[in-house]
Amino acid sequence: MDRIPPFPIPWRNIIIDPEVLYNSDEFWQHLVFCENSTAESLSSLWITLYKFDHQNRYSKPMPWIGIYIALASLFCILAMVADLLHGFRNRKLWFPCKYFTLNAASLTVIAVAVKLPMDLTNLMPGYVDQAAKLGSLGFMCTMMANILPSLATMDSKELVTNIIALGVLVITLVVNVCIQINTGSLTYHVDETGSFLAFDNAFVTAHGFIPIVYVGVLLMLLMIYACSSLAILKSKQILESKYQAAHQEMEEPQRLTVEKLKQHVRNYWIMAGTGSPQFMTACSATTSASGVICALSTVLHIHILLSNIRSLRDYKSDYKWSMVVILIIQFIGTIMGTIAPLARCFATLSYKLSIKWIWNHIKVSKVESYWTQKLSEWKQSNIPFPSSSRKCKIVIQNLKILILSICIGFQKAVVVACKMIAVIPILSVICTLYCFHRWKWVRAMFSDSGIVELVPDPQQLAGKDKDLSRYVLQLQDDMEFAGRTLKSISKSLNCLIQKAKKQQPNNLMKLLTGSTSFPGVETFDCVPPLLSEEYLGCWSLPIVTLTTIAMSLPKIQNNMVDCLLSSVSEGLVYVTLVEESLRSVTNDQVSLQKEAKTLWLEIEVYHKWLGNKLPKRAPQGCTSTAGQILQLLMDTAKNMVTEVESMDIGNRNDNSKCKYISAKSMYSITETILLSYHANIDQVSQEELFEKLSSMITNILASCLINLPQVIVMKCHTSAIEKREASVHAAAQLLGETMRIINTLQDRELQRLNPDKLPYIEKWPCLFKASFFFKNHSILQLYQKSFWIPKNKKPNPDHILIQPNISSVETALEAWQRLTTLYANPSRSHVISLKKKLVDNPRVNRTIQAYLQDMKQIADNLALAVNPVDDEDLVVHVLHNIGDEFKEMGAAIQARDSSISFSELQNKLIDFEIHMTKKRKKSLSSFPTSISLIKAERHLVGTLKIPIKTQEEGISIKEDQILNLPTPESLTILKLFATFVTLLDILLKNVNVCLAF
């Protein structure tokens, strides 16, 4: 056979359809009509056939690659739709980015979705092929406009990394499209006969101009991204400084009741909502410009699809039928994705609409400082030079200043361009509002009821908004939020709390209602450790261990066990929150929490404890007692602990450590229960033991969940500005779910224990051990209800009088006996004097705190004298002696259906006193002592030669000048003239304000 030539011989006047080359019979029929059927020509045809055959093989999977592109596009669409639903659900019509954000995963999916414009090897000869490729460019513009606000959710490092990655993707896409524009591959078309039509003027004009427009749009969006990133870096610093200032001024509620917690969460909710970096980005000029650009891109995409709607079967690329799927899916994505960017163009309507607001938006040449301040800081900063040459430093410094100066100018140009584009929706808003107001005016003219429209009282609205406006964070001080915006933010909090109320843990509440105190905390673990190494305790592990013991009792009914499991499962969710939020997290604490979660999963799902199967029900003839079950569990745990002890330190891993922690907890708790029953353990039934275990679990849960108010307060304040809004949202959700729990447990709060120690379970036994001596005496209850003296306060004189009486005793028992002798049998006259003092004890000029402490001390002394006074009588005596200033508060309390406790009365009276003090100061500050009035009085006094000075100067009238005092008529003239001067001053001020407006 002859050697195949190294190059094919060109054939002229022959049109070969690729489909013909795949069929040998038709191939030879075409060959018959060839003019030169030489060997070289046959070899050339054979090579061409070989190439087409391989090309056919390689192009077979291309339709499935097209489906892969369509799936990536569908994934992006679903994320954008999820953001739309999230915005509608939370009444945030500026649609924050929660699901479709800029990160490594989304950039990868976006790169797959826009593969068609990046494909340089495959021709797109069909109308559908060309429309799909151009539609991918429009889809890319829509996605970029959608994820722009997500830049505000990143820290500085993530922001720079993602902007660089997006820039590489966009520049690569633009370069590939420019190559295709230059080569003309975007304007080729093959007709039905197989001929390439490269000079169809209409086709070239349409499909040659549109790619250039898309390239310009992509580059403009990329510049907007870079410009917004620089502004976000500085705006976050401004918002953070304002947040910290507001946080410093805000006082944490002392007694964390549900109402105070709700108000506390509301304040931080306002700060997080108005100071959200995403919201500030959505209201910026760059975001508005991107929305307008996205809308124009969508219009262009619609034009492309409508022009090719009749040619949906004209696909001739290797992607074949998948091009139709890509075209339709990306068109739907473009339409759905335009909603959010277009809605963000009107996000600035959240501010008060005024002439100043309109002027700030129309004045496009003004560039705020935060747009360029970051570049200015970089320009003024020093760069560490590796070279010690002075000339090199001068060159680099000057080059840096030159480059950054150009960047500042470019940044200002982009901002001005964006403001010019953003004027389009602003003008439409102005026209719409003008037409709306004119329509209302016309309707009022022809309507009888239009004259008496109900207008809200401006003072009432101002009073409501004033409380919320204290916590508003604004990037620009001259732009104020509208009242409807603050109401909407506050309403969203109410909706969230109401929704969370429906998710309250009902099973946990049933369990907690059986707890009235905290005796289980100090009794669950009283055994010294088996090993020298001891780990700090955690709340969840003893709860899980006690539940395991309860599940090991085979004679207990399944419904009771299931009810306990459901309650503990709900409680562990909040126990974990307490441990993670309030405790200082160490490696040992992390191990404990991790082991507790793993152990609970094994118990709840598989009914096993460290691989040992727990019995579900008692078999026939089972005679195991509760003591035997406890002894079996204790021996099993002890063997596991000893096994870990026998291991070398180098061979111990995380599993062995976790195994030791769980086994040690089981050993300690079972041993403690056995010791508590002494020799009577065999007489204890499984039902009694189950009830005791349930009580211990309940009390430990109650002791832990008493810290939930502190968890809510801590979640309201977080250091990271990007996570602040989500943290406050979690706090509001937690408050709604745990309202009943907090109300149930708040009256059991132990005031003798430092609140900082409440989250630590290892601190609780010390509390109960300290009060062990008093637990069988009534004085313990009295001390629990009395005011405990802080360390920084001086002791009460009564306590000083007690000290000499017990200073000579040697034991605590002798001290107690001596105190009992002194105070157990008081005289009748002493009791009568205390009762008289309680009935007739006016407050006079004392503060509420001092007065209530005095009344409480009298009641405590009566209780020591075996004449206790209940809370209701004490409240009556307090309200009787408190004075007329608190008459309104007393009437409101007496009108209540239920009685009020003394502690609640104390909180309300203190709050009312603070309110009255502020009101008094405000009334004094608003008293008419203006400068003009004082000057007028001084002028008249000087004219009439009256030796009187103002009260502010503190000078009284001398005795020898009394004869020079004016007559009553002159005093009347003086008052009238002073009033006239004051009114004239107010009138001039109003005229000046009107002229300035």
Automatic annotation (TrEMBL):
Segments crossing the lipid bilayer: 65-85, 97-114, 134-152, 159-182, 202-233, 279-304, 324-347, 420-436
This protein's UniProt keywords: Membrane, Transmembrane, Transmembrane helix
Record's keyword annotation contains DNA repair: no
PANTHER family in alphabetical order: PROTEIN, PUTATIVE-RELATED (PTHR35307), TRANSMEMBRANE PROTEIN (PTHR35307:SF6)
Name listed for the protein in its UniProt record: Uncharacterized protein
Naturally occurring in which organism (per UniProt): Lactuca virosa
